[in-house]
Queue: 2 jobs
Job 1
Amino acid sequence: MNPETLASYSNLSVYAAMLVVMLAMLAFVVDLAQTRVRTLHDASVADATAADASEAPAPVLANASSGASVGARPSSARAASDATNPADPFYPAGPVDDGTAAPVRRQWAGMGLSLFSLGTLLMLAAVVLRGLSVMRAPWGNMYEFLLTGTMVIALVFTILAMTRDLRWMGSFVSAVVLLMLGMCLVVYTDASQLMPALKSYWLVIHVSVAFVSTALFTIGAIAAALFLFKDASESLGVVPTKGLKGKLYAATPSAKALDRFSYSLHIASFPLWTFTLIAGAIWAENAWGRYWGWDPKEVWTFVIWVVYAAYLHARATTGWKIRSATWIALAGYACILINFFVVNKFFVGKHSYSGM
Amino acid sequence: MRRHGSSTKDPAAHETPAASGTTETRRPDDVQQPDIGVLGLLRWAWRQLTSMRTALFLLLLLAVAAVPGSVWPQRSVDPVRVRTYLQEHTTAGPWMDRLRLFDVYSSPWFAAIYLLLFISLIGCVLPRCRVLWRETRGGPVRAPLRLARLPEHREVEVAATPEHALETARRVLGRQRFRLRPADTSVDATGAPGQATAYVSAEKGFLRELGNLVFHLALIGVLIGVAVGHLWGWKGDVIVPATRTFANSIFSDTQGSFDTLAAGPLVDLEDLPPFIVRVNEVNVAFETGAGGSQFGQPRFFDASVTTQDSPTAAPRNQVMSVNNPLHFGSTSVFLLGNGYAPVITVRDKTGKVVMREPVVFRPQDNNYTSTGAVKVRATSPQLGFEGIFAPTISDQNLRANPVSDFPGPALPGLLLTLWQGELFPDGAPQSVYALDTSKMTQPKTAAGLPVRIALRLGETKAIAGDRGTVTFESLPRFAGLSVRYDPGKELTLACSLLALAGLIASLTIRRRRVFVRVREQDGRTLLMVGGLAKGEDVRLGDAVDRVTESILEELPRHES
């Protein structure tokens, strides 16, 4: 096949992915709409079932004299306390879903996940075809960055969703992915060769890690935003029972579980971003003769690093609430957005590869 | 965030009996501060500076302070854009300059932030090094008496004697790479190992704190590496037309030496490595296949060069490209730019050649519309031309709107505007790329217009006023080279990688303490495992489970 055909198949894949991800989003939204908002009666029933479920794995360790509370795994005690929010699908029986308490089947969410995985495969195909059409890593302009970035977000989410129950997040992630695919169309650039500065194996090292890191930060930011929503309600002590807010409240994990998830994603991503920074500096030294020159892209990569470093510090600072720390994490994500959408296009610098 | 100014009433800093005891007798206008003295004040300031919340504040401040440098042009990055900006903003510009907004990263306020941050870092990290050292030497602590109070604990009944159970626990924990506290051999009053001593204390994850400390200390190393580069490093830029030679020395004649040279304060410029680079050919290709914004984008760029490590060394042929610099010892030469250097010949009215050389025209836009200056010294009065060069331009545009349509040399055109007078007033140094017209005049045509000469490649035209002829002979390209020496970069790299390793260790390794106690009750042996973590640890419960289950695998559980 000639390059033009491959490139056009890549574009077709993008359109197909948009359609499939849109269907996935609709399925997730239907699932969200089906969430039963808890009433007082439900709560007591749910608490009881949650307690039963958590008792199940406990007998692994024989209870001694001091009764159930000693032998029971505190993790299940935690699940019981989390069960004040009965629909906590994230950690149904403690921090690790060890398979003993299978999450409830939800048809629409399952459909959403399957469709989303299909969409991910289509995006993967689009990236690979684009790469084949130009015989290089397809990371040479804004369109290609955006397409691959979107694909990596979808891929990371799909992989994460295999190991834990992330159905509550599906509608948000597919909305973000759909939005980004839409932006791909706006910044579409014809397939062509790289500019000389990008012809280096460091392109693969530096940019691929940046993609994974950004994807983790993105999913982490969604979880962080949901945490803020959930925490605001929980700390007020008022459980929203009506409308979208009520559904959303009932469908998402507890604030504590959300925060744990978001924090672990940020922790995984921060060293990757550090690596991106270092690899970028090594490449810059090779290409431009200096490892650091305060080019706008370098400045913002540094700013992002510092803000997320501040987030990690805020987590460890006594007197800083998790809420406030989470705002710092979201500020960090805002910087990532600026770094991608504003710096590439509007700031004059050596990273002007947007091809727009 | 708490302000420094308002924190004088910080109870932690000022809680003395005197202060709290005199509260009632104090009149509002007679605020009695406890006398903490100069030393106390210093100690208080130090404690504030090294506190975590100050570090956090400084981190956020650093992030904010770095932003202006990406918004406004920086002298260190692009001095020409700064000059243009200042010319366009005559009111705000000078004030912004006074605030060092065009030199953000060398400004005192930026330096103040990162230096305070590093002092805070040192003040925070050094005591922690001491603590870690003590803890590592001391080994795991004694087990608390009531393990049931620990955040994670399990109790199981085992079919074994207490001694055997403890022995097994020690073995299991050792196998799981815990550090163990040596067994306490003291006995209670009855001569048997007492409740206080019948335990196992184990700890793991010292590498977490070590990694954290290494990360922070390595950041200091990065800063030192950057400083070394600034003090002992230098960089020079030079434009070399094809077939010309560059010598890396400040002593070489004007031709072929640095256009700009910036060196750290501790550099001996007379001691530069004396290598020589002759640019044989510069090869550049631009996109012609893809349409839209990709059309005309650079696609290929390299230069074949002949180098000598010193004037007496054997010449070597090499190819350099954007990601592939030349190395002479620890000095490197990078290929950064390219453009055109049309060879221009000027003859006087007798036909004698008064100038023939490649004249560098520096690109001003992506299509290589370039500007340059032709300086004819050998005539009297001296002649000068302000020139615009376009590699691809129509006849019509060359006269009316000299802007290039494509960066490749498809239809090159040169437009020269004549000046006459003194090229080098007072012999002051001046740019090679522009005319200093302060002592020159612009001859006019009969119609009263400036004398302009449009040339195509190979053309010769007469200079109006019987001043001879000018020829556009050939069109070699030039290579923009940058010569760099940074003795700090290896240290910076090593420290960055060390910081990354420390970071990964500190974020992935968990520091946990596990204690095991055994007690007998009604003839049964009860074994309790307790776990304690430093910092946030979601998986502590799992770790305690793992330990408990491993012990149970080796000790039959009591079947009841």
Note: Chain B has four domains: 50-134, 143-204+510-554, 230-288+295-338+481-496, 343-479.
Job 2
Amino acid sequence: MHSRTFILVTIVVAAAVFFVAQLVANNYLFFAGYTVLQFVVLATAWNILGGYCGYVNFGSAAFFAVGAYSSVFLHKAYPLPIPVLILVAGFVAGVIGLGMGYLTLRLRGSFFAIATLALAVVLQTLVTNWDFVGGSRGAYVIRPNSLDVFGHQIPYIEYLFLQMLILAAVAIATARTIERSRLGYGFATIRDDELAAEAAGVPTLRLKLIATTLSGALMGMAGAPFPYYLGFLQPQSAFALEYAVNSIAMPMIGGTSSWIGPLIGALLLGIVQQVATVTISSAVNVLIVGVLLVAFVIIAPNGIVGFVRNLMRRGRS
Amino acid sequence: MDFPIELLINAIIAGVLLGGFYIAVTVGVSISFGMLDIVNIAHPAFIILGSYIAYIMNSRLGVDPVLVGLLMLPVFYALGAAVYQVYYVSFEKRGQEALRGLAFFFGILFITEVGLILVFGVDYRYAEAPYIGPAIRFAFVDLPYRMLIPCVLSLLLLASLQVFLSRTYVGRAIKAVAQDQQALTLMAANPIAIKRIAFGISIATAALAGAFLVIIQPVEPSVGREYIGRVFAIYVLGGLGSLPGTVIGAMLLGVVESITATFYGPSWAPAVSFGFLLLTLAFRPAGILGR
């Protein structure tokens, strides 16, 4: 499928999802759907660096929180509409991704992974000690109950849901476009054999920096509407390890080789977690994610996508 | 305001004692990451597990935490050997340790933390022993036993590991595996078996480090996360797996953290180690002793 056609299809699917959700018109659906879509964005963003380039980012929560806190900061300093906040958050998180990559990407891959873990704690300490954005006590972000669009009253949660839906569509379209472009092939050479790629003249450092910047920016964008979604933000909830684990587990479980893996993983795990939070408890559902992650990397290293592909290949022969 | 020199000296000495304890925390990673090239980011989770076992035995049966740590050495060794076997079969053999091996250890870290939260909750747990509380006092310098004992025992642990690695047959084989695995195969030694032993030892040190941790401070499941930064900051500062380097890195971090906590408040302390780690990675990736 041509990239342009794919983008069109994505837009049509996103619109269809929104209209079906409108028909059900249950507020809880929008609340739960927002979280699932947020994971779609995080998982897709993680996969641009992790799946395509083979560099593990443990600091997804940090980029997410940077987005969320840039919104809190602007909310206190100079309130702006959410789409603008998303762009600002994307810019800030992208710059942090670039800086982070510049400092560590010349080293072996595992150091980058450890450094991202470190980044999360440094940023959390900074935010906890920064009183303007609430410090350790947290910050309230008062949002209206509904939004006035051409005389229609739209519940605010539907507005947030729509933003996240658009963001998810953008993320998936970006990932898929990269996959089929020169950039994507460059990423693949880094993943398969960085030394050989470097020797063959692939500008590996520049490509890796593009990947960290893009991936970080998308994660930050996913975090931007988060304070408005919760109405209250504190460091523990923005930097929750849950985001880091989920954004690794979802692509790993779905399959890291293409855009569809993180999507499947995020939808599946996201929905399972929503159900488990309601029926069992939220502590158990994060445990489920951890166990699934370990089980999948051991048993099905190529995720659900790889597993299905294997079955199909076997069926043909 | 004149500079509180006594406070500074106390902070430095407390930092040295803390650094001694950090040796026990890091030495396992120096072996697994530095010698075996296994990026075990779950190491702090094993330490916290050790702390909780020491806490249970201490509160239920009244056993001394250090004794529990010693008794747990073989258990943790077996646990480590088992983890390595899974790691080898699932990742190392297939050549997938870079991406999936990291995710595997991250998953273990996470499962341990959430598992402990589910069983024990997020309350702080502490151990009781006669030496927790009293301190020796020289002039204006305080030497609390709860810091002194882990520090001395950590140094002993490091010394015995150093002797083991340089004097015994197995120890030398572990060092050889770190340098050239293929050459070892040609010498008719099995590198996998040796790596299994070495990884077992590295996890066994976590049992002792965990017991020390619960003596030094109250423990809750997510404390492990702070130690990820410390462990790897020390590991990188110390020059990636050299044991003497580990001592220097641990002492340095302990002192800087202690000074920061004394003069700027303990809420800044975690940022110190991570900041150190980032700066070292960026500017001196081979460590302070490195070329």
Note: Chain A touches chain B through 42 residues (CB under 8 Å).
